[in-house]
Amino acid sequence: MKILVINPGSTSTKVGIYEDLSEVIVENISIAAEELKKFNDLYDQTEMRLEQVLSFLKKNNLEPIDLDVIVSRGGMLPPVHTGAYVVDDNLCDIMRNRPAQLHASNLGALVAREISKKGNVPAYIYDAVSVDELSDLARLSGIKKYPRRSFSHALNTRAVAMRYCKDNGLDYYNSSIIVAHLGGGISLNFQKNGHLVDICSSDEAPYSTNRAGYLPIYSCITIAKEEGHIALQRYEDSTGGLISYLDTNDAREVEKMISNGDDYAKQIYEGMAYQIAKSIASLSVVDDGRVDGIILTGGMAHSKMLTDWVINKVSFIAPVSIYAGEFEMNALAAGGYRVMKGEEEADFLK
């Protein structure tokens, strides 16, 4: 089975070809800042992204008709369940005209739809960013008009949870797993019987390399008054976390500072681990203390210094495993493979 995987990011488009579950080739196609400046609107990039993928196929002696299935990262749709959705005209209309939020990943389904029409092959999205399976209790925010939303690294965290269960002889669909994705943004979730029943999204999770994470509400009010709401948004999106404290978003640079005796850098980096551990502990109550495993994943899970601090604080809850890096491309291919094999069903977005 030949699978095309598409994963658009803000400054690149990652594309891959898989034979069944085996990676054949994956390429990260960068987009220069000067190129991006040409587009006034996110969706104006669609044709450019499509040409990137078609050129990738041509370079690898493939045409759309040679594919068996296309799987794209799912973007910021209205709330959806875990798993696969059929990429059709209706889904693309919602993605383009009524998304929950603008994000580069929204372009994936639009590109997949065009290629699927050229080759007459099925296309799906899998584990979209907007997976929302919060329990009724988890959805309460404290203000009736503004319930909690569910945005997390669903694709990677579900993939590593499934892998963890397979590695440890557990049934994923009868397990309770906490996963912390440690990247440019940090998010955590509690996966119970295959569903993300509670989460800590990046705006209510620990600070990261460049995001402020959960800010005290009165601090938010002060920032909005003194610096404006745009500055507050930037702290949450790009200028908070390690950048704010240490003028770098590279955890490796922070570790160098620490090894050179910078006690302040050590305090800030350990503070991130402290907050990660607190968030894990807060999620441990979701299933009344039943936790079959805790997983640390994402790019910063490569940092032994950081993960050792976290493990020291939370290992009393459940065994802690590290699956460093991200496995989004493999997860997308595996999702499409299961749908095509009849092991999972794809839904239609209504």
From TrEMBL:
Keywords: ATP-binding, Cytoplasm, Kinase, Nucleotide-binding, Transferase. Belongs to the acetokinase family. GO terms for biological process: acetate metabolic process. It catalyses: butanoate + ATP = butanoyl phosphate + ADP. One of its GO terms (cellular component) is cytoplasm. Its main location: cytoplasm. Signal peptide: none annotated. Its EC number is 2.7.2.7. The keyword tRNA-binding does not apply. It comes from the Bacteria. Pfam families: Acetate_kinase. CDD domains: ASKHA_NBD_BK. PROSITE patterns: ACETATE_KINASE_1. It is an enzyme of class 2 (transferase). This is Probable butyrate kinase. GO terms for molecular function: acetate kinase activity; ATP binding; butyrate kinase activity.
